[in-house]
Amino acid sequence: MSEINITEEESKKSLNFIEAAVEKDLAEGKNGGRVQTRFPPEPNGYLHIGHAKAICLDFGIAEKHGGICNLRFDDTNPVKEDVEYIEAIEEDIKWLGFHWDNVYYASDYFQQLYDFAIKLIKEGKAYVDEQSSEVIAQQKGTPTQPGIESPYRNRPIEESLDLFRRMNEGEFEEGSMTLRAKIDMANSNMHFRDPIIYRILKTAHHRTGTKWKVYPMYDFAHGQSDYFEGVTHSLCTLEFVPHRPLYDLFIDWLKEGKDLDDNRPRQTEFNKLNLSYTLMSKRNLLTLVKEGLVNGWDDPRMPTICGFRRRGYSPESIRKFVDKIGYTTYDALNEFALLESAVREDLNARSTRVSAVLDPVKLIVTNYPEGKVEEMEAINNPEDLSAGSHTIEFSRELWMEREDFMEEAPKKFFRMTPGQEVRLKNAYIVKCTGCKKDENGNIVEVYCEYDPNTKSGMPDSNRKVKGTLHWVSCAHCIKAEVRLYDRLWKVENPRDELAAIREAKNCSPLEAMQEMINPDSLKVLENCYVEKYLSTCKPLDYFQFQRIGYFNLDPDSKDGKLIFNRTVSLKDTWNKIKNK
Which of 109, 215, 353, 387 is the most exposed, fewest CB within 10 Å of its CB? Predict the structure, then answer.
């Protein structure tokens, strides 16, 4: 019994504050002991790594407590939304390993929301305002000064009803009228100062066509949609803390002030995912795509989920990272290196080890018989021996990395240099005997001799040497393109830097971005060689190029042209570069 108690106590300690609140609600019997969450993205762009944190929470909370999580698209702004984004969002959620119980749309509730707005007008809780949004904003006041009431605030109920119906019939132009909730222009919470709840938009909606000419604002649609669906826990990021009283008020109005304490959606806020060297605003990401600063939403330098997928991140690594950073009630900037460490840890356990030479120079084993070919066994993953092995061919002429040879090397250079022995991985110990240069002094060939008794299982196979090099056989390899991706931004906090540059230079977001772009964020190597075992690999398969880093096959690959993306290096080299 004591062991069970200890386990339960440790489990409670591991709960984040949101899980603790959910368990408290369940213990108190709220919402009939149900847990129902929702993930409510707006389909106006592709999901980014910040959304992954919300996805893990929304779906994870429901899964952990035997509840359900629905996917709901907040499609209240037809100007920016597209079916393309809906399909991409669904794909990203599935890739992360989550499954929704139902798919809903805010547009499912347009009639109910419209009817609710009519009800509020009839009750004197809403009115049609004919002022511009700029004037309304000026009249809001400040947190310490009350706002100014609209001259239309007390217009007759019948007049507001007539105008609101005509707004929806398309009689008035966009921006000429809005529907505002009548709350309190002196409230210390600025969101209570007669917020706009409907505006005119004459753009066709991707689901409802031209039926509606007025569309609800997010604050008006969100809480009611949660209530209509039976959501018990509405999980939002910290910027919605001041919105929560309005969220609760609208639900109270919807249910005519009935006591809903034990049966209502509860909004709880958590911190956003902020990453160093990362810009995640959808607006800015759209600028990058439209202006051609990146190659689409799934460019491996983008912080989008599809970008990370194409770069070679595994869904498990992203979920592990989210679990590591946790959920708090304060914002912080997380080091990108922490995400990369989670990726390395995960890929180390799952990736197949292969040989690839990115900057080749020919290595000739001068005492190895011409025409002879041996098949060497290569373990697929030393962390998982059940993954098996494959063969790699060894021959007289090999490709090796140019940086692994120095004609005149320092004392602690344990790679290929004249007179020094190294092991060729999975093969023999060789001793370098010299090199050949072209007329410009560039090394074109390196020469060595092998010891035939040093192959695995032979008498001298355990002889100690300080260096082990990778290689591929010239006659048994495939030419490939390798794309070396790095961080897109030169600055640690591009969001703040973007704002600072724009203010200092009075320039556009695009111009400011161009100043911050890392010119080395992508290097394309076209004359690389990989072992022929990779000829059968599939897009997004995970590999470790031995001694180099983690890579995956890019979907751009075609028969006869393999393209590999670097996911992450074997070690964190960025901080060394940054701190020089």
Answer: 387
